[in-house]
């Protein structure tokens, strides 16, 4: 949530020069940062309780957001990530709450197997089914992907209180299928990866238009201008 002053100034310059998108708060409500500075998001805690349902797509090697949700609200968090390094890291964790439920599955428009591009930098964790500048399309693995509708059906859920997505550019691909489904979602938390694409600003504009058309407004923006929190406004 809190980059250095230099990083903040660089982000402001990028916004003013038109290199990256700017976001303004559209709905004022309680918002608290959950998780560390790298993997966290703003959340409206007033809409959460022990019976709330939270979905967390894109775990990587950071469960700080998920652990904060469980600690503060005692609710179940359903985490998903098809990344090999993430699956291995989670499998070795012995300190995770029994209320954190992990599946080695990715989020897509349709259920099925997909080619997953691994990161160009071998030290990095996150890959993507989307081909962008940070992944190697010649270094792929096959992973299981599922639609959100199919995942909820398997878990016997009819709604989601929080949908968090940090899915390395795939947010642009899946957002319309999610919004056009019959799934009721109170809060949508997105990490925006427009920096991965030459037409990233156009992709973000289209994504924002879709969210607005379905009644979502921005209520929280991280200092990095990449973690954006939306709330369904009736």
Layout of strands and helices, then pairs:
Elements: H1 5-16, E1 32-34, E2 41-43, E3 53-57, H2 64-73, E4 76-80, H3 84-91, E5 100-103, E6 106-107, E7 112-119, E8 135-146, H4 148-155, E9 159-165, H5 171-179, E10 184-191, H6 200-213, E11 216-221, E12 227-232
Parallel strand pairs: 3-4, 3-9, 4-5, 6-8, 9-10
Antiparallel strand pairs: 1-2, 7-8, 10-12, 11-12
How would you describe what is shown here?
The protein has a domain at 32-108 and 148-232: 3-Layer(aba) Sandwich (Rossmann fold), CATH 3.40.50. 26% of the residues lie in helices and 29% in strands. It has helices at residues 5-16, 64-73, 84-91, 148-155, 171-179, 200-213, and strands spanning 32-34, 41-43, 53-57, 76-80, 100-103, 106-107, 112-119, 135-146, 159-165, 184-191, 216-221, 227-232. The strands form 3 sheets. Strands 5-4-3-9-10-12-11 form a 7-stranded mixed beta sheet, with helices on both faces. The chain has a 3-stranded mixed beta sheet with strand order 6-8-7. The chain has a two-stranded antiparallel sheet with strand order 1-2. α5 (171-179) packs parallel to α6. The longest helix is centred in the C-terminal third of the chain and has 14 residues, at 200-213. It is globular. The mean pLDDT is 93.
Q: What is the N-to-C succession of helices and strands? A: HEEEHEHEEEEHEHEHEE
* CATH class membership of the domain at 32-108 and 148-232: Alpha Beta
Q: List how many beta strands DSSP finds.
A: 12
CATH topology of the domain at 32-108 and 148-232: Rossmann fold
């Amino acid at each position: 949530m809190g980059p250095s002053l230099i990083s903040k100034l660089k982000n402001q310059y990028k916004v003013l020069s038109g290199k990256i998108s700017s976001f303004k708060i559209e709905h004022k409500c309680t918002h608290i940062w959950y998780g560390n500075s790298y993997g966290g998001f703003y959340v409206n805690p007033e809409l959460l309780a022990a019976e709330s349902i939270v979905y967390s797509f894109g775990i990587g090697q950071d469960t700080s957001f998920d652990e904060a949700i469980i600690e503060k609200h005692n609710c179940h968090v359903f985490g998903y990530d098809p990344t090999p390094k993430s699956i291995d890291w989670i499998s070795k964790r012995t300190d995770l709450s029994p209320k954190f439920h992990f599946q080695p599955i990715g989020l897509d428009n349709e259920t099925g197997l997909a080619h997953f591009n691994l990161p160009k930098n071998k030290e990095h964790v996150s890959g993507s089914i989307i081909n962008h500048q940070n992944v190697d399309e010649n270094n792929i693995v096959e992973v299981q992907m599922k639609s959100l509708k199919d995942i909820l059906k398997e878990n016997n859920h009819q709604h989601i209180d929080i949908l968090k997505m940090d899915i390395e550019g795939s947010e642009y691909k899946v957002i319309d299928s999610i919004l056009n489904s019959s799934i009721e979602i109170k809060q949508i938390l997105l990490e925006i990866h427009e920096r991965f694409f030459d037409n990233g600003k156009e992709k973000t504009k289209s994504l924002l238009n879709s969210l607005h058309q379905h009644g979502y407004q921005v209520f929280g923006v991280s200092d990095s201008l990449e973690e954006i929190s939306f709330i369904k406004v009736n």
